[in-house]
What we know:
- The protein has 485 residues and is an alpha/beta fold.
- The protein folds into three domains: 6-134, Alpha-helical ferredoxin (Fumarate Reductase Iron-sulfur Protein, Chain B, domain 2, Orthogonal Bundle); 149-244 and 406-469, FAD/NAD(P)-binding domain (3-Layer(bba) Sandwich); 248-401, FAD/NAD(P)-binding domain, CATH 3.50.50.60.
- It has 18 helices and 16 strands.
- Helix 13 crosses helix 14 (299-310).
Amino acid sequence: MNTLTLKERMKIPRQTMPEQAPDVRMTNFEEVNLGLSEEQAHLESLRCLQCKDQPCSSGCPVHVQIRDFIAAFSNGDYSRAVDIYKTDNILPAVCGRVCPQEVQCESKCVLAKRGEAVAIGRLIRFATDYQREHSTPKTETLPSPSGKQVAIVGSGPSGLTCAADLARRGHAVTVFEALHEVGGVLVYGIPEFRLPKRIVHEEVDALKKLGVEFKCDEVIGASETIDELMQNGYDAVFIGVGAGLPYFLDVPGENLIGIYSSNEFLTRVNLMKAYRFPEYDTPVFDCKDKVVAVFGGGNTAMDSVRTAKRLGAREAMIIYRRSEAELPCRKEEYGHAKEEGVHFTFLANPVEFLGTPDGWLKSVRLQRMELGEPDVSGRRRPVPVDGSEYELPIDMAIVAVGNGSNPLIQQTTPDLAFNKRGNIVADESTMATSKPGVYAGGDIVTGGATVILAMGAGRKAAAAIDQYLLGLAVGNQSVEADRPV
Length: 485
């Protein structure tokens, strides 16, 4: 098959991902996507044209050598393919499931110009799953210890990536995590049906084999400050604490019983296993036979509404102030939500929550919107329609309109520059902050973004920290407060 001509390769259709049927998956928290068969995966790999300039790699924030990965894959050497991928991306099984390839590597694929891109994400998912089931991952040879110690604050995607790259350079790395489990947003924010937690645990185990040490239940800024870490022997610090402070709608009645932030709702269900209550003693609002409204249109909103549906909601709906065309979530997540019976109300905005005399949510007052001129995001701005308010009965509300940065680091590190949004100011090329020896990346710098973008920041920071530790000037420059990021 590897002798196929270019024309024959281009005739192979993109392989369809097998999935649980919607009526089945709504009753469980098992993974929706079931993975390609080996035959499907091989056919998909043969679609790759092996472009000399690798445009797909240029679309990847961590610049995985995708052409070489697929070349090994198409020859049936899946373990070799994974090893190639892991050279640049330490979380392959995670990214094969949650990375938005359609707007990154796959968007640059030559085939996408006239048809459908090679399904890069599905191939890396297959390869990592195959390796896990059929072989033992290669043990990496590490350089001699450098004698330098680095503290990583936060065990999300940026922190894990930075930790791996620094360990591979011979530095001693300790990751401090505020919660009781390692993984950051990968374990508390993304539901089991999209990213099984055993996958995250296996990726973390790979870092432990590199010598990375993890300390949980350590809230940096409270248990220790950034300054104290450096005084206690760490030569450099990387801050990757994410953006975990939920935004709310700031409308009357938002304190009624039955209104959650998406952060609390998903953390209770994902990290604290509320979906397996009473096996796990973590209560969550009883969704069974209730009407649940989720406000927002991103991936977190889709995760929330699909979770509510699995918890037994009679009706689960998304209320979004823009139109379908402006939805920021992944196309796949939107499609899955519709298949699962989620109702979408577009061009509507909440103006007030209404409750019962004893303080329970009973309804929301909505105002119809219309689209005006584009705003700074490039999407058309929603404009209220006068006299269009109406009341919608609901039993539960989940607010998923974004997150800000926890102010704890800012409050306890006075010489660290932050911008007006409360994000750490960092150099775009090195992730260096205003504080010598301190670097930052991920959502704490950019605001809410994707897993792979956070990983890209972690890689940049690791390279700069390595140079800093070697006594070079790169990565140790200061930046002005309030500089755009």
